[in-house]
Amino acid sequence: MITGKYPSLRLRRSRKYNWTRRLIRENDLSASDLILPIFLTEGKNKKLKIKSMPGVFKYSINLLPKIIDEALSNKIPMIAFFPSTPDHKKNNDGTEALNENNLVCKALKATKKKYKNEIGLMTDVALDPYTSHGHDGLLKKNIILNDETLNVLIKQSLLQAEMGSDILAPSDMMDGRIGKIRKALDKKNFYDTQLLSYAVKYASNFYGPFRDAVGSRSALKGDKKTYQMDFSNSDEALREVALDIKEGADLVMVKPGMPYLDIIRIIKNKFKIPVFAYQVSGEYSLIKHGINKNIINQNAIIESLISFKRSGASAIVTYFANDIAKKLD
Ligand code: PBG
User: Which mutation among 211, 221, 287 tests ligand 1's pocket best, with the greatest number of atoms within 8 A of CB?
Assistant: First the structure.
């Protein structure tokens, strides 16, 4: 590795000017790396603030073209929909997830119709935006039921695929769901619908602002530790990914992002599969707060996103997507 020594060897030599730094740069960030999450709300002409996520809004379906046009002109390849379901439509079993006129379905239909395949559409498969208890699965006697939940997730997946979702992203962390969903999709001839498994999703403290946005934070009973992963573990992440690949995942996600760059790297090294990273709401809000208070500057966003590329991520889900894509070539 070392080909000389000081003083004849000086690594600063190749950092001296911008042009030489550009020549030796190992990783780059482009708009093609970014996925923009969009929160949905009911009503008309609504663009609602989210208190814990300054700069992020919930949009009613009729205003979606505003933000999607912006994403397209910024060359962002994909958007992801997340619904803020009104409380009166939530119940114990999250049945609104299977309503073909729910927010996500309406957004998928309208967007597919208008934009065809100009931009990718990704949707979350999980019940938490629809359950009154805020959990991702069916809850009975304080237990999240695995196999019973799978039956609902399969139906939710088929519905979203039918409505035009290009990439289904199961984020529920139930065992066995990737295989079951893939099988059900294939049986109904949705063989081109991709599966992006949130293979490695930690029971994290960084999801708070998102739960505010979809209204599952105050609702949430207990925690998600019996299904989301313990953040002390990394070998377990490799087992999760190995299983999901075997079951038919096209892509895998690691979530949250920045505290888990080590996990992205070990998955990339071992499996050579596209790994996506999710820079989650808590990460967004912390960085945004720092910028708003002049504690750090705007470039911290790019630095945070490049760290994902360096760790081996192919793409990053980030609430900064539109802001940053504008500034990139
Ligand atoms: C749940 C889901 C969560 C996020 C995306 N999908 C939250 C959770 O597991 O409680 C969090 C995203 C973020 O914090 O930005 N299916």
Answer: 211
